[in-house]
Target: TUG ubiquitin-like domain-containing protein
Amino acid sequence: MSAHVEVIATDLRRAKVKVTPGTFLVDVLREACRKLNLSSDRYLLKHKQKQLDLSVPFRTAGLSPGAKLELVAKSSSPTVINVALQFSGRDAAQIPNGRLTGKFSSETTLWKVLRQFESGDASGGHNLNITARGTAQTSSGTESGSGQLYYESPVLNIMGRELSTMEDLQKTLSQCGINSGSVLIRVSFQTTTKTLYEAMEDISRYMKEVDPESTEEVAAAPAADQANEAQTAEPAANSATETTDPNPQTAQPDPPTTATTEPAPAPTQPATAPPPTTHDPLTPTSVFQAPSNTVPAAALISVPDTVYEPTIAHAQLHQARLLASTHNKRLKSDSELAADASATAARLAAVTSLSVRVRFPDGTAAQWTLPPDASGATLYAAVRGVMASPQQKFRLLLPAGGRGGHVVADAGEGQKNQLVKGYGLRGGVLVNLNWEDGVPEDVRRAPFLRDVVASTATQVVVPEVPDEEPEEGEEAKPAKPERSAGGGGGAGDGAGKKVPRWLKLGKK
Model:
């Protein structure tokens, strides 16, 4: 049995998602965001102004087939989740009630949750081994033969959904649909065909690609766990192989030894690390070639005409802005103006660097990373250092916009103001270079950059815009305009209107 739900975005776009009783709502959110070309990490689902729990399946969510769900923006700040880890078997016997609880951020991955439960305050003082477990087995699968430790991977069960692969364990609590409240995670283990040493190497390699900062922690912690597992597995392997093999092999002693000796040089690394090199602000960090095509890259992108057709949402937004412009607005008081000025000064004071890209008359460009105290004279000197004709005069102007045509630096005055505090520039800034009136024509037509700088120029890479996938099923229909609260309608509503009593003239 399958049904569908309709997800409505904030811009009134709609997407139909097919669901079954076992479909989780977090999968509904991902599929809807994929069709609407949105990021699922930034949105939540609501039904009748009530936020839905994305970790539950469709059959327990209380939704009917064809329900209309609203796509709302999620708060950018993470929330606190109460996580309970439920064990079974021999692990549950060592823990009171077989359960451990802890508080974690919604942006914490499942792997880090398990790692924090292994040690620290979250484990309740118990030394657990969840991510580096091994079980002793013989190579032939019988009770006799050489022994070996095989990796036991953790399997998490969250609301009936099992997560066992490393890709699944790298998902955050929010990506699993857990954004608030509490959650119960049941932990079980399954024996794999990999040895413990091979599995630890694969996990360390995978974690190095995903999160390089946590590689040492992942590689060092299982080393101690392997030694503990080897001690507990040794009697079992010996008892299984003492009848036939006079020299039994239990857990490999070499891999734990190498794992524990690898992090040894780490304490001496900060002492031998080279001192940080200072970057010259007058040296450009990137140089870009002029476009080879005479047609702009933006003109080569094929965009359907439907993109430029206004929708009902655009008309409603335009009417709301027109209505807001007719209302009288109170002027800000002196205290409010002072608060705005202090907030602006605080934002500018927090700037640590400024990225400035200067576009030259021949189409080439260069980019500099300047300190926050750099002035217009600093940028002027940096540009003069890459010119083929540094004796010529020029001006640096901001492009058209809020400050279009504003002179940042020139050959005379207007160079001493700081770019951040004086001009209020932040983040990435684009500046155009214009020649002064007295520059000869042959200099204007000649290449702007020096040969040494031009040889390091690279081509500008234009990112490809993904095509928007069409909706499955029927074509999107325009939304019908809703009537206002006062009952006003279109031109055909005149027959149904009644004349108010105060407008009637004369007496009955």
In short: Residues 279-290+352-463 form a domain with the Ubiquitin-like (UB roll) fold (CATH 3.10.20.90). DSSP finds 13 helices and 17 strands in the chain.
